[in-house]
């Protein structure tokens, strides 16, 4: 019986075990479309998400990635209040309409208006009475008067005939109206009340990112991680505007979690992704709970020790293929999470069914990841740690503990000894900006799609063919028989 277990065990594979086969192609890499579905209801423009890790994704990463067309998943090793604030930061930064407008009273002295503008670093203020817009005053209107020490009231200097716009205005329409009327800012009015303000500067900023992922209101898309049973947090993140919630667990085939995911789903408007899993059975069980997306990966991550500590896992390419076969039947998107080292790995993940990949290591070294640059032996690095590492489980609010179904006694001075880590802490090379890293990764994926003759991600999933390679094949694939003198931006040699 036991010998049979060994004999019946399947072989499972990962990225280095295969290569993609070049095919007859009319597709030029520059013409491919990298748009992909990441959940039942959301599309993103490049198939890349950032990991919900405290050394990878806070608002700055989510904003930078959304601008490039991807999606950030805000980590949860912080209080609900702090995580809500990170989501709001992302939503505010992608919105051309500023909602928390700073205003002034018509009876205020203009010196007060001037002080507000100076303090808040803005050049104009709407003038309101009981939320009703009665005028607008700009720094240009009042600077000469303030300089001459005169102290008139705001209402004596303001422009009362204000050009306003409705909430439904598009960025292009707003820009035309602003140019026609030679104004820099347009108050947004609903039922006579001021609800926001649009500035020309914000509209022009938006044009810089044509590939950005935005919601229906034009704000950046953002996702957030939530603990498997943390319904209160899920509700708060949902209310704060998270588009997608991601149940973040090391073992999402825990049946209590599976059952609870349906309760979570019923209580939120956001789409719900659940992970991580690595088998057909887990995919079937979660899909039966009506989840909107699946995340695959048990132990492939660069700082994971689950496969060593617990002896559990499935090599990532086989895990992706197995889950994707089930997900495809139900039209549920699959995110391949962990183990991606090069752009070619992204292409291979898609070739075996993934709709998108999640990156930790490759993004942790960017400027937009949390944490400072450290210099070791003259080279720049940034900190990167597993959410199941001791540092992450005992730092922050210890979100890693329920990810790994462990409890921490906050009062215990010996809390380190009460935890069984499933990850390590370290550093990764500093890699510059998210924009630069994404350019290389997406460039590599587009090249791959050209070789495979696939114009879209869907075609890549259907058409790409693989060849099984040996150790000598892997050796031949990497640069060999030379000393690399110039490091390439998409092939680190640390
Ligand atoms: P990469 O390879 O991109 O992987 O660095 C990132 C993914 O690894 C997962 N993760 C962990 N897995 N122990 C684990 O076994 C950990 O401490 C840990 N922390 C993160 C996670 O899925 C992430 O997206």
UniProtKB/TrEMBL annotation:
How is the activity of this protein regulated?
Mycophenolic acid (MPA) is a non-competitive inhibitor that prevents formation of the closed enzyme conformation by binding to the same site as the amobile flap. In contrast, mizoribine monophosphate (MZP) is a competitive inhibitor that induces the closed conformation. MPA is a potent inhibitor of mammalian IMPDHs but a poor inhibitor of the bacterial enzymes. MZP is a more potent inhibitor of bacterial IMPDH.
> What InterPro entries is this protein classified in?
Aldolase_TIM, CBS_dom, CBS_dom_sf, IMP_DH, IMP_DH/GMP_Rdtase_CS, IMP_DH_GMPRt
Task: Fetch the PROSITE patterns from UniProt.
Answer: CBS, IMP_DH_GMP_RED
User: Would I find Secreted among this entry's keywords?
Assistant: no
Q: Which CDD domains match?
A: CBS_pair_IMPDH, IMPDH
Taxonomically, the superkingdom here is Archaea
| Cofactor field | K(+)
Keywords assigned by UniProt, alphabetized: CBS domain, GMP biosynthesis, Metal-binding, NAD, Oxidoreductase, Potassium, Purine biosynthesis, Repeat
* Sequence positions that bind NAD(+): 248-250, 297-299
GO BP annotations listed:
GMP biosynthetic process; GTP biosynthetic process
Q: In which pathway does it act?
A: Purine metabolism; XMP biosynthesis via de novo pathway; XMP from IMP: step 1/1
- Amino-acid positions noted as binding IMP in the UniProt annotation, renumbered to this chain: 302, 337-339, 360-361, 384-388, 422
According to its UniProt record, this protein's enzyme class is oxidoreductase
User: What are the residue boundaries of the CBS domain, all occurrences included?
Assistant: 97-154, 158-216
According to its UniProt record, which reaction does this protein catalyse?
A: IMP + NAD(+) + H2O = XMP + NADH + H(+)
**Active site (catalytic residues):** 304 (thioimidate intermediate), 403 (proton acceptor)
Q: What is its EC number?
A: 1.1.1.205
Could you say which residues form the signal peptide? none
Kindly state the subunit structure of this protein. Homotetramer.
Per the entry, what this protein does is:
Catalyzes the conversion of inosine 5'-phosphate (IMP) to xanthosine 5'-phosphate (XMP), the first committed and rate-limiting step in the de novo synthesis of guanine nucleotides, and therefore plays an important role in the regulation of cell growth.
Q: Give the family from UniProt.
A: Belongs to the IMPDH/GMPR family.
Protein name, please? Inosine-5'-monophosphate dehydrogenase
Which lineage is the organism of this entry classified under, starting from the top rank? Archaea, Methanobacteriati, Methanobacteriota, Methanomada group, Methanobacteria
Name of encoding gene: guaB
